[in-house]
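Lecture notes, continued. The same structure-token format from the folding unit now serves as the input rather than the output. Read the line below as a description of shape only.
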């Protein structure tokens, strides 16, 4: 009796390559893809509808009253634009670059159709004589605008040098500038010195910085321990009724202050 052998067909060599497309798994994948595509297209159309909606078109740009120096034409491009498409961070950088006298610019979207603009205006803190010109700077050394004359109420800083072209918005951040600003700040923050005003300060030599007070008295310091030196100056001026006709300067660079006579 002869046994017949069953022929076995390998799945790799004789299977139907399209069999998967007839399986339930494929139908689920296909259905899922169709749903995902429909959701994507629907979301895209919905987003486009929102961006084009009149409800979100900007009608008002409200600028803080303290920012009267801003040119309203800078905001003309916002009118009628979708509030959803406004890049607030980019617009803030643009304004700060154009108006260095403005600090901490804050542009806020007030839905559905209003933009609010606020900022802190940089206040002139001192004058700087550099490159044969006088500029006004704030307490961070940022150039605000050129001053045609010397404003008597602000300290005049000299002895600063720069190879860069100085213009509005430039930052004078060198050691000499920052040191001069620090001396002025520490002087102003010392309440015992409130009856005096720093008129000018020369930082050409950081080992021998001299500044003049409103009474004509010359004060000499170096770049170290400025706060302590201002305290020492306050004590000297309080204890001694200085005759500015006789006293030429007060040198605070040493352990004990030196009073130089004329």
């Amino acid at each position: 009796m002869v046994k017949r052998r069953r022929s076995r067909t390998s799945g790799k060599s004789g299977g139907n390559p399209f069999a998967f497309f007839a399986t339930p798994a494929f139908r689920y994948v296909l259905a899922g893809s169709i749903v995902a595509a429909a959701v994507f297209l629907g979301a895209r159309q919905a987003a486009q509808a929102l961006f084009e909606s009149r409800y979100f078109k900007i009608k008002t740009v409200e600028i803080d009253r303290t920012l009267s120096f801003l040119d309203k034409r800078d905001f003309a491009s916002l009118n009628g634009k979708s509030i959803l498409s406004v890049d607030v961070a980019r617009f803030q950088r643009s304004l700060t670059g154009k108006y260095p006298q403005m600090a901490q610019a804050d542009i806020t979207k007030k839905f559905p159709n209003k933009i609010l603009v606020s900022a802190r205006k940089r206040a002139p803190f001192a004058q700087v004589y550099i490159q044969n010109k006088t500029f006004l700077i704030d307490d961070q050394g940022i150039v605000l605008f050129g001053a045609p004359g010397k404003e008597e109420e602000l300290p005049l800083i000299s002895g600063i040098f720069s190879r860069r072209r100085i213009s509005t918005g430039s930052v004078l951040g060198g050691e000499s500038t920052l040191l001069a600003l620090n001396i002025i700040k520490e002087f102003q923050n010392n309440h015992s010195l409130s009856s005096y005003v720093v008129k000018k300060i020369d930082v050409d030599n950081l080992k021998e910085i001299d500044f003049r007070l409103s009474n004509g008295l010359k004060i000499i310091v170096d770049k170290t321990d400025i706060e302590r030196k201002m305290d020492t100056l306050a004590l000297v001026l309080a204890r001694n009724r200085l005759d500015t006709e006789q006293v030429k300067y007060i040198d605070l660079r040493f352990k004990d202050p030196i009073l130089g006579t004329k």
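Point for the exam: The radius of gyration is 36 Å.
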